[in-house]
Amino acid sequence: MLRVSFIILLVILIPQSGNSRSFRENSNLIYDVIDQISHSSILEVDVKATTVTCEPTYGFLPCTTKVWGQLFIIVVYEYLLSLAEKYVSSGTDLFFQMFGTGIFGASLFHMLGTIPQVGLVLVIGVTGSTDTIEALATMGMGLLAGSTIMLLTLIWGSVIAFGSYDLSQPSDSSDIENKRPFSLTGYGVSTDVETYYTARIMIVSMIPFFVLQLAKVLNSSSGIRIVVLISLLVTLVFLFVYCTYQVFQPWIQNRRLEYLMCKYVQKNLLPSLLTGGGRPNITIIRELFHKIDKNNDNHISADELRALILGIQIKEVGLNEDDYEAKVMEEFDISGDSHITENEFIKGVSKWLNKAQQSAHNQGHDKPKFFNSNSKKTTEEEIRLLAQKKESKGTDRAWLNYIKAAFLLILGTAITVLLAQPLMQTLQEFSTAVNIPSFLVSYVVIPLALNYRQTLRAITSSRQKTENAISLTFSEIYNGVFINNLMGLAIFLALVYIRDLSWDVSAEVLVVLLICTVMGLFTSFCNKFPFWTSILAYLLYPLSLLLIYVLTTVFGWS
C-alpha cells in the first residue's frame, strides 16, 4: 500500500515540472523507481515462495527448521526411545525368567529383546516413501552397526575398567595386604572357559557380513541382488541353527538366566540372615532350616525347598521355580542324595552370604548393598512367609507377571513404532542442517539410547570383581552382538531385497566385519584381560568412526 501511494504521489507531481526536458527526466526517474519497486516485489514473492516450513509427523508431533530446535527434539526422542528399550527389555527378561530355559528361552525371548533396534529399521523400511527410503535405509544400517560396535568397544572396555582386580590373586580373595599396587598389566579381569566359547559363536555371525563384501567385486545390479539374497538366506539359517542348538545344549540359556537372577537372590532373602556386623547369623539360618523342614526329619526335600524359593520371592520377580529349585539343590546338596541336611544348608547359605559380602567389599562398601538396620524385622517376616505354603497365591502372582510382561513388551514396541519415522526424519534434517552425513548421526546417537541401560547393568555386574560376574557379563555382551547382528541384518536385507533398493554395500558393513572379527578372535583365545585392553577397546570406537569417514569420503563408499 505504501508503494502504491508513493507511485500515485509521483504521478501527481509530474505536471508541475516546468519544461519538457525536466518532464522527461522526471518520467525516467519515475519509471526507474517503479521498475525497482516491481523488481523488489518480485524478489519478495520469490522469497516467500521458497520459505522452508516443516510438516508435523502424524499431524501432531512437533517439528522445526531451527538447528537447536531439532537438537532438542532429538534429545526428547532419544529419551522416549530409551524408555521403549527399557520396557521391551524388562518384558522379555520377565518372560524368560518365568518360562526358564527351553524352546522359548532359546529363541523367542532373546529375539524379542532386539525389537527397538530392528523395529526402527523395519518401520522406516515399510513406511518410507520412494524418495526417502534409500537414505533412511542407510541410516538404519548405521544404527545397527553402531549398536554392535558400541557393545564390543565402549561397553566391553567398561567391564574391564570397572571390574579389574589384582590378577596375581584369585578374584574372590580378601587378602588386601598382599595386593599389589595398581598397574596397567597387573590389574584386569579373568573369565571362564564358557565365555570364550560364546565369543567363538559370535564370530560365526560375521559370515553373512563377509558374503556381502562380494558385492563390491560385482559391477552389475543383478549380481549385487543375488549376493544380498545369499547373505539373507545364510543369516536366516544361522538364526535357526543357533536357536536349535540352544534347545539341545542349553548352557547359553542357563548362563543368561543366572545373569538375570543373581541380583534378585541377594536383594530378598539374604539381608535377613546377617548379624549386625554383617556376618552370617548361624542361629537364624538354623532356625530357618527347621521352619522349612516341615516333617522334622532333619532333611529338606525338593518339595520343602519350594518354601525357600517362595521366601526369596522368586514368583514376584518372575523366576521359574523348577529351574531355581534344581540350582539350589545342586549347590546345597553336597552328598548328592537329593536331600539337604542342616549342615549342608548352613554351609550353602553361608556361602551365598560370603559371596555377597565379597561383592560389596569389592565395590567399596562396609556392608552389603542390601543390608539394612531392620534386619530382625525382615527375618521374622521372611520366616513367617517361609512357614506358609502359598501355592495358590503364587499361581495368581505368576499370571500377574505374565500380564505385566506382555504389557511392557507391547508398550515398548508401540513407542518404538511411533518414534521410528519422526526420529529418523529429524535426524536426517539435523544432519543436513549441520552438514554431517546422516548415517554417522544414526551410528552414534541412536545406539546411545538403545544401549544405555545395558551399559549400566554391565558396569554394576562387573563391579562385583569376581570371575563369575565378569564371565556372565561378557557372555551377555557376546550373545547380544550375535543376535543384534543376525536379526538386524536379516530385517535390513529383507527390506533391500523385497523393495528392490539400489543399496550398495555400505562402509558400516566392512567396519562391523573388521571390529567384530578382531575382537572375536582376541576374546576367543584369551581368558585374562589386563587393564590396558580396556583402553584399546575405548580407542576402537573413534577408530571405527574414522574408518567410516575415510571409506565414504576418500574411497567414495556409500
TrEMBL record:
The keyword Membrane applies. The chain crosses the membrane at residues 143-165, 227-248, 399-420, 432-450, 477-498, 505-525, 531-557. It comes from the Eukaryota. GO terms for molecular function: calcium ion binding; calcium:proton antiporter activity. The lineage of its organism: Eukaryota, Viridiplantae, Streptophyta, Embryophyta, Tracheophyta. Its main location: membrane. One of its GO terms (biological process) is intracellular calcium ion homeostasis. This is EF-hand domain-containing protein. It is found in: Endomembrane system. It comes from Quercus rubra (Northern red oak). One of its GO terms (cellular component) is endomembrane system. It is a multi-pass membrane protein.
